[in-house]
């Protein structure tokens, strides 16, 4: 069973940002190619280069590729742009798999935007093929799933089931989950929504509690997003509620 715990730092794929995150003593780094790294092909390639050149260390690292549905216009096949997610995984596996696997550190990914167990199954099949092409042992590439929609919240158990031994665990992001909730509820004329949705809304707490229950039952970790408040009591609350660690921006 692989369970990570402690403080998790979100960082861009940039040399300075990586060095700063490592220096802050985080237990694990999340290198975000989707949102934190500046958009653009040149920035993406520079980010991968920074990961290649980063000094070896004992800090585990998760890399978040862009979504499968996003295009990478810099590479065309048959006149059509390839999937940005597939492009990112190809770069990660081709350039980073050997040094990371030699240190027993993956590659490990964080996959966001999964809306159902069918998408989790697709990702699992993609990673199976990537391992085979790269000559990696089955299960070398592992993945944490970021829960960012209401439907994914309902299918946490099924999502982990599709990933099986490849699953590292679950994390929950409040902002996209809240946006998903609003998109869902506005389609119902009888739904009454508050003028302002509190970031600690009850449905988010329910989803977090379910995440902890599902993840721990399957022997994986449950990581919370750090509260907006920096008060020690607020930062401690997700841990007291069963989460194994906190993602810090």
UniProtKB/TrEMBL annotation:
Enzyme class: transferase
Pfam families: MS_TIM-barrel
GO cellular component terms, A-Z: cytoplasm
Biological process, per Gene Ontology: glyoxylate cycle
Organism of this sequence: Limimaricola litoreus
SUPFAM superfamilies xrefs: Malate synthase G
Domain of life: Bacteria
Family label: Belongs to the malate synthase family.
GO MF annotation list: malate synthase activity
InterPro entries: Malate_synth_sf, Malate_synthA, Malate_synthase_TIM, MS_N_TIM-barrel_dom
Protein name: malate synthase
PANTHER family: MALATE SYNTHASE (PTHR42902), MALATE SYNTHASE 1-RELATED (PTHR42902:SF1)
Limits of the Malate synthase TIM barrel domain: 61-223
Cleavable signal peptide: none
Enzyme Commission code(s) on record: 2.3.3.9
């Amino acid at each position: 069973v692989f369970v990570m715990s402690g403080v998790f730092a979100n960082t861009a794929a940039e040399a300075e940002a990586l060095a700063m995150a490592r220096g802050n003593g985080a237990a694990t780094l999340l290198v975000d190619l989707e949102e934190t790294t500046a958009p653009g092909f040149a920035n993406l390639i520079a980010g991968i280069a920074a990961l290649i050149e980063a000094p070896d260390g004992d800090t585990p690292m998760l890399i978040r590729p862009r979504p499968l549905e996003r295009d990478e216009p810099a590479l065309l096949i048959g006149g059509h742009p390839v999937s940005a997610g597939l492009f990112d995984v190809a770069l990660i596996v081709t350039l980073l798999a050997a040094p990371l696997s030699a240190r027993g550190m993956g590659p490990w990914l964080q996959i966001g935007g999964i809306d159902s167990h069918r998408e989790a199954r697709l990702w699992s099949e993609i990673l199976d093929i990537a391992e085979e092409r790269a000559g990696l042992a089955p299960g070398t590439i592992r993945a944490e799933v970021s829960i960012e929609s209401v439907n994914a919240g309902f299918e946490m158990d099924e999502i982990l089931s599709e990933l099986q031994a490849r699953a590292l665990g679950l994390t929950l992001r409040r902002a996209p989950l809240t946006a998903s909730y609003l998109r869902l509820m506005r389609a119902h004329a009888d739904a009454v929504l508050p003028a302002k949705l509190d970031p600690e809304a009850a449905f988010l707490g329910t989803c977090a509690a379910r995440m902890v229950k599902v993840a721990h039952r399957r022997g994986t970790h449950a990581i919370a997003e750090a509260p907006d408040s920096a008060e020690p009591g607020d930062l401690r609350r997700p841990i007291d509620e069963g989460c194994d660690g906190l993602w810090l921006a």
